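Subject: for your reference before the review

Hello V.,

The reviewers asked for a structural picture of the protein, and I figured it would be easier to keep everything in one thread rather than splitting it across files. Below is the amino acid sequence we used in the manuscript, unchanged from the supplementary table.
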Amino acid sequence: MAICRFSTSAAVLALVAGIGTGALAQTAAPAELPAPIAGLNLNNLEIETKRDGMREIEGRTADGVDIEAKVDMAGNLVEVEADDGVLPQGLIDALVPAAVKGNQVMSLFGSITEVKQRPEHLEVKGRQPTGAEIEVKFDRQNALIGVEVDDAAVPADLVNALLPQAVRNNEVIGQFDRIDEIENRNGRVKVEGEDANGRDMRAEFDADGRVLRFGSEDGPRGDRRGPPHRDHGHRDHAGRADGPAERPMGGPQAQGPAGDARGPAPVPADFDAVALNQRLTQAGYGNFGFLRADGPRLMLEATNPQGEAVTLEFDPQGEVVRETAR
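And here is what came back from the structure prediction:
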């Protein structure tokens, strides 16, 4: 890894590089900046070459905006960011294709602060005229695949454009009072937002509208609580746990020696565990454990569609409110 720091501007460095004297040859290579960066005449220029050959460049424009950029081994500008400022138009033009700039979603931007060229997509971040942050993503064909807005709802026309009809028809979408993030790529659709009570909600669907993951938080927006405390129950002299009642998915409730349900919070007798089993199976879950009550919620251990061991938490109506890894 090599680090070069310069107090002179990029323009002066370029002039020095052009002289080509032997004594100055070591400073000539860092001055070979991509044209959009060199044209800014950055002051306080710093260049760091990483082990993978990526060069990280930092400097300050004449009007005091700190610029950070990354250049790959081939000399291509792949990432630019304005720290506490707005990106110069020349950097935006260098990284954002005309087809992207002409997309309707770009009209939501009041300013652009960051652009990143990823292997599979382009990311553009900035602020709306209100000052709220916004981020959009485009695939390599310049098609919009994602949008995220801060403290606001994604406009309805963009929701319709990004969500397949099969996803829009899923009843889970109806539980969102506000959608503030959508990403649709590689056959998966991710949606995040809030319900009518201000709780965080998130869901993931396949291209056919089937739910792959769904959960919500108990607290208001920003209050991200961990999994609830579990009461493991009192142990008798034989070491048996007198904990929450459990029953297999769709099976009978566990009974004590006298026929009474064990535990202070039995699974409601009228709860339709069979329907829950069918719904989860269709969504790709499997390897179900015992359904058990834990206070006002029902808990179930399973594996999710990605094969991960998880604990699912349901409200009394059987709606998933949280999925946590085990």
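For the response letter, the relevant points are probably these. The helical segments are 10-19, 25-28, 35-38, 89-95, 98-101, 156-162, 165-168, 273-282. Residues 158 and 299 are 36 Å apart (CA to CA).

Happy to draft the paragraph if you're swamped.

O.
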